[in-house]
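Forum: Protein Structure Q&A
Topic: Joint prediction for protein chains with partners

I've read a bunch of threads here and the consensus seems to be that you should model interacting components together rather than docking separate models afterwards. I'd like to see that in practice. Below is the full input, 1257 residues plus whatever partners are listed. Could one of the regulars post the assembled result?
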Amino acid sequence: MDLGETTVLVGPNNAGKTAILDALRIALTRRWGQRGTGFSEYDIHMADEATDPKKSSGVRIELKSEERRPGEWPDTIAEDLGDIVQLDLDGHRSVSLRVRYAWNAGTENFEPSWGFLAADREPLVGVAARRVNFERFWRYLPVFYLGALRDAGDEFSARSSQFWTRLLKDLHIPSDLESRILQDLDVLNEQLLKADPRLGQIAETLSETTSIAARDQEGELDLRMVPLKTWDLLSRAEIILRNEPALPWLPLRRQGQGIQSLSVIFLFQAFVDHLLHELYAPGSEPVLALEEPETHLHPQAVRTLWSHINALPGQKIVTTHSPYFVQHVPFRDLRLVRLTTEGTEVRSLPASFFVSFPEMDGLVDVVAQSGGKLTYEPSSETLTVHGNLEENFYRKLLSCCGQDERRAELASRLCDLRAQSSLHVTDDELQALETYARRMRGEIFFAERWLIVEGQADYLIVHAIAHALDYDLDQHGVSVIDAQNNGSPAIFAALARALAIPWLAVFDGDEKGNEFIKQIQNRGFESTEIQKRCRTLPKGDLEEQLVADGLGPELRETLAGIDGENAKNLDDESLLHRLRSSKTKYAAELATRIRCNSELAARTPAAFRDAIEQLRGLA
Amino acid sequence: MQRKAVEWNDGPLLVLAGPGSGKTRVLTCRVARLLEESLDERFRILALTFTNKAAHEMKTRIAALAPGGEERAEINTFHGFCAQLLRQHGVHLGIKPNFEIYSRTADRQAVLENALRHQSDYYERNDLRLLPRIDALKNLLVGPEQAPQYLLSKNGGASKAVERIAQAYQLYEEELHRSNALDFNSLIFRACQLLEHPAFARHYQTIYRYWLIDEFQDTNTSQYALLRLMAGDSFRQVFAVADDDQTIYEWNGANVRRLRNLVTDFGCDVIQLTENFRCPPRIVEVANRLIVYNVQRTPSRRVTEAAKSASQNSRPQIQCRVFPGDEEEVSGIAQEIAALNPQERKNTIVLARNRAMLETLKAAFSNLNVDTTLLGRRDDFASPQMRWMVTCLKQINRPLDRRNMAALNEMFCNFAGMRVEPEDLSSRSETNQVTLLAAWVDAVREEEPSTLPAVEAVARLASGKMRLFDAVNEIIAFFDERHTAHDDFKDDVSAWRRIEREIRQVRGSVALDQFLQEMELRSKEPAPASGAVSLATIHGAKGLEFDTVYLIGMAEDILPSWHSIQKENGNAAIEEERRGCFVAITRTKQHLILSRAESYNGRLRKPSRFLKEMDLLNLSSNDALRNGSQPTAPMTIV
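Posted by a regular:
Agreed with the consensus. Here's the joint model:
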């Protein structure tokens, strides 16, 4: 999984999002000599109840940290990690770490093991395996975890918070100021004791304690109303706030949940800004695993959250269930996590695709001819195509395999690469979606199925028909995409394919509708697939189809409600004309009628009804 | 001057320093100083030495001088450093990190034999003689592809012979690659191939901010090429200490001109250390007298001065002995040393031009019940028990290696008298679906129960139920208790302990594969026994110092050797012999005894020309007079 500056994981509950964050946390926070490794036996995959985890090959986590351009890391990192840094021939530095957790027959225990990897992912041996290298590596990638159930009370605790405690402990109070404050506190304490004579009496009663437990010399007892030591004072530090100047100050823990939850995120930022490099190393980059930043927040607040989180220092991996949050996340930063029969699957919209491919005669030449479209890294034997692998380069790569005995195997890898890269969505297309489809993009990534239609009228009517047919689209996770207002239908088809979201489309049976289908065809969809997924209204556009399906009376009635009684007497031609000129209005009205009238719904266009029927079992 | 060198900060520097001038001290102190002044920094310092022993000593001293800083000092031999580089980045050359290092000639011959076997119509058995030719090419960084062109340009004609060499070279390299193994010269050669990529050179320039090279005068062509490649065009933080008068590895590609190359290629400043803190004044004097006969020296070389005053000891600083024949020489010297007390013996070394003389001397000492330690690199352990144990470790590391399995079987047979037939081994391994080693252990369990404890320890180590050093200890204890082991076994155990200590000191906990690689790089000589007299060849004496030094065989055809006298290259070979003599005598802290026989192997030999050059032929008797006393041992005046 490629992790960028900020990566956002989206997916249903139990799909494996938290497992990904946990994997990161376990791989990056091992502390030697402490009990517990972060793993448990439950982490080992079991196909069924009868599986013996001891026979499993166990869990394996591999992390690769790599420079985006040669020399990106400060030299001190290369110096410090000199034993484990790997290089490619262009000089990109990287470090790969592998963690395993499996049954060890020798010690009869489930045990974790840790090791760095060479560029070919074989374990590095020798000095690289020294413990000190792990300590060093982790120092540069400290990972912080803010779970969904984060509690401001804990995170701002003076004793047990990963940030707050360390911030407070690190505060430097000049010693002359400290002694002055302590004196002031003594004075204050005295004044308080004097304020009510009972306090003095209480103190006196309690001093009996010392006389009973006395040793050779007499002890003393006093009553302290204010902190005694500096740490007692500092540890009482707390956040107070008021949302408007006129309101009274309130402690954070008395604020709403949303404010509390949000403040923890910014506490992390304060921690990084002020203490991270001191506690870890210059050049350390924090990794923040953040679950559901939107917790308890108002949608408006959630919308603005993305830019704040993106601006947080270090690398962020965020899970979310909030469409409002996703609305502003760039497409390439999104990862769709879902559970399939094969296990957790992660889909994204990468800019490049790669395959493992051995160095062949002529390969270097093909790569050189590609003008940067193809790149090859010999040490890891990785062939990368940036964008779509065009036919002519595919042919050239195939011919590199020549008479090699692995020819068949290699050809099938190239074929896979081509198939993979055909899922490529260009930056321009994504940019267009950013512009047109922002409103809906939050929502569609949470959908289980997509139904692509042309416009808003279709949108309204389809929802109504589905409801009447007892297949509520919202309830079943179907997003209806009115593609025309949000870019073009073909891009959504391509997106759906890349993200493995099942989809169907219904278009008008006119020139425009056919044009949409042609555009989809041009994205490399097989015609059988188009037949399976795309429908058109046989009688023309939506209005023509509705009239042809015999909904004329209902349509006239609807129009009459909008435009006045004379609409009831319109001939078909004028009816169509009037309908088209107040599309959404009539569609909304008609939808309301269809919703609760299954007899009417049964007469709606078959293309819609069939599509809804097909959605039920669609995978 | 020493301080100036230690305090040298930036820029390339060559420290030209005579014997006993504290070269190693300068290196050590400079490393320690650089580390101490940069405690908050992460960069490392690279110090390359000629022997593992020197590396080990330097590491220990630096740890004492700059506690906590030694972690950032990579002190290694050229070969050790290259092995590490290839372990980390060898994947770019198709080398897997757990490669095996073949240091024994026998191993390498077997590789060549295997390589040529498939070409039996073209090559014959005695083509193993091609191995030194291959080594020489690789040492010059000439790969198999460039070999024909190189050889033709060098020798001309004889293209058939050239083709044979080049093809054998190619096949040999392929065979090494198949076995995921590297020989010594490959370590440097392959590291150079990697460093040709600027990204890697830059990486090493970044992480090692300062480089120090010990005994630079003995750097050979490929080692120097490695330095140049790694330094690229811009890196200049190179600090070398050298004494061109001590270049005694010319046969291995060292070259007195290399010092000049270093100065020009890197633009080095030069500091000379001219004070000798080791040798008494008389010895400094004769050494100076000897070495000026060499023409190939750094022209600006200044004369070494004695910094140490003559000791109060009544014995003369230099004595000479003459014996009628070589047998008398050996027994006479042995008797003379046997008469010393154990403390004195321990501080005494006998040096000779060649190993054969030392072997006879060793026997003579043995007759007198005097312990000796023969210094110098040993490529392998001597006892079959230890060799067997090592083959077991290798088999665990490379379970599919049939060649090693055969060696393991053979070694075991040497002391246990039982061998598992290869067919039996294969069928057991296949039927039971177990490794070759496990199959072998099964067979031995059935047929040779007397060695079981050792074999079981191997089995437990192989199955991960026992840790490496626990298993080794158990095996050693078993052979020790049975007293069945050869005398060599004690030496081997002593060597093993030293190697184990060295590796664990530098590397901490090590995995088996790396332990084997490191062990292969190290000499298997035992640690000197207490009260033992040290024996060494002149080449093995490099970097050492002793209170009393005996240099035997000071005759023509011995030192200088017959070969060097016969060589047609004029004075070059003689000059190297002279430097050998120079190295030998300057090991002395107090007393030097030079001896010769009038005949060797029954043939008359003139006194070595070096005696004359040192002006010791006639004046040697005056030594005693000058020191104001009579010689303690009967002395023959030449």
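Residues 427-616 of chain A form one domain.
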